[in-house]
Write a structure and sequence with these properties.
Helices cover 38% and strands 19% of the residues. The chain is of the alpha/beta class. It folds into two domains: 123 residues, Enolase-like, domain 1; 224 residues, Alpha-Beta Barrel (TIM Barrel). The strands form two sheets. Strands 4, 5, 6, 7, 8, 9, 10 and 11 form an eight-stranded mixed sheet that branches. Strands 1-2-3 form a three-stranded antiparallel sheet. Helix 1 packs across helix 4 and helix 10 runs parallel beside helix 12. The two termini are 28 Å apart. The mean pLDDT is 96. It binds magnesium ion. Magnesium ion (MG) binds next to loops.
Length: 368
């Protein structure tokens, strides 16, 4: 089987209301969908975000064109060679959007390999288990969203089967955020895991101050307390609180995770295959984490990560987005993942990633 073309479709749609975390406001969802086509008629798909762009897909598309040269005519099963041929640090950079585009292509190669052998990606990667506990992420700041509305969102999460939920902090005063966490803990009860995420909003001192105030609310993890490159700052926060620190969604490649782990920056890692270098690199990060007995709870993109977190022995939790993060979240793919009544998500038993984009819906939002 040979690769004949690599093509990207760019889709963008507005959120009814902008959502805000500790650091950024998001108005538009951008969905860059990569197609790797072959001479056998099979197509692998991968996708990535890059929401910050004012001209959706522009940079993403030109980087796909750049990488395409290394792929045309190649056998997709030589994925390690293809990864190495794309990741030329002197030319395209070791982090940032270039690695995110490489990631989307690598994800498409894995989807393609799964389709070619008729197996789910999870099985190609080791198939450690077939289901994983999940948490519903949300709890953003929004115009007109008070404590009552936040509590209602969490009640909806419970109704969907969630046994773990995540909320944002860092976008209001420490006193206000402690009150928001108190209300959510009261709403979900003592049995449900409650996670908080600051999206790098704090200084080390602020992070330690709020962590200590949140300890009575049995917080399962404190995500990205400080700037992503501040490994020592993460470690200082981790040493100052009983709440486990989680980080990694803004980390790139095995080299970044090597340094993060060496600094004892976190007790839980949140790698994102769409950012760090695709599925190939994610598995190397997962192995590195396993050698340090660190659990993996991937960031975002549940349709991809359900395969990865169930393939490995150190998988902890799957992050699940719903309409509170993206209004079309349950419609982008024809068979959306769902939580069961115990809060678990099952790996689709279909070839590749086992998802089909809902092109009929998506075409309304195609921008490039
Ligand atoms: Mg996060």
């Amino acid at each position: 089987m040979r690769i004949t073309d690599v093509e990207v479709h760019v889709y963008a749609w507005p959120r009814p209301k902008p959502i805000r975390n500790g650091k950024y406001t998001y108005t538009t969802v951008v969905f860059n969908l990569v197609h790797v086509r072959t001479d056998e008629g099979l197509t692998g798909i991968g996708w990535g975000g890059a929401t910050a762009s004012t001209r959706p897909g522009e940079v993403f598309r030109s980087l796909v064109e750049h990488f395409k040269v290394a792929l045309i005519g190649a056998d997709p099963f030589t994925y390690r060679r293809l990864w190495a041929n794309m990741w030329l640090p002197k030319i395209v950079g070791r982090r940032g959007l270039t690695t995110q585009v490489l990631s989307a292509i690598d994800i498409a190669l894995w989807d393609l390999m799964g389709k070619a052998v008729g197996q789910p990606v999870a099985k190609l990667l080791g198939g450690y288990t077939d289901r994983i506990p999940a948490y519903i992420a949300g709890g953003y700041y929004e115009e007109g969203k008070g404590l009552k509305e936040l509590a209602r969102e969490m009640e909806e999460n419970l109704a969907l089967g969630a046994k773990a939920v995540k909320m944002k902090i860092g976008g209001a005063s420490i006193a206000e955020d402690v009150e928001r966490v108190r209300v959510v803990r009261e709403t979900v009860g003592p049995q449900v895991k409650l996670l908080v995420d600051a999206n790098n909003a704090y200084s080390v001192h602020e992070a330690i101050a709020i962590a200590r105030k949140l300890e009575p609310y049995d917080v399962f993890w404190f995500e990205e307390p400080v700037a992503p490159d501040d490994y020592r700052g993460h470690a200082r926060v981790a040493r100052a609180t009983t709440i486990p620190v989680a980080t990694g969604e803004n980390e790139y490649t095995r080299y970044g995770f090597r340094d993060l782990i060496a600094h004892e920056a976190a007790a839980i890692l949140n790698p994102d295959a769409q950012i760090l270098g695709g599925i190939t690199e994610f598995m190397q990060v997962a192995a590195l984490a396993a050698a340090h007995d660190l659990p993996i709870a991937p960031h975002g993109a549940q349709e991809i990560h359900v395969h990865l977190v169930t393939a490995i022995p150190n998988g902890l939790l799957l992050e699940v987005y719903r309409e509170t993060v993206d209004p079309l979240r349950s419609q982008i793919f024809t068979e959306p993942l769902r939580l069961d009544k115990n809060g678990y998500v099952r790996v689709p038993d279909r070839p590749g990633l086992g998802v089909e984009p809902n092109y009929e819906l998506l075409q309304r939002y195609r921008v490039a």
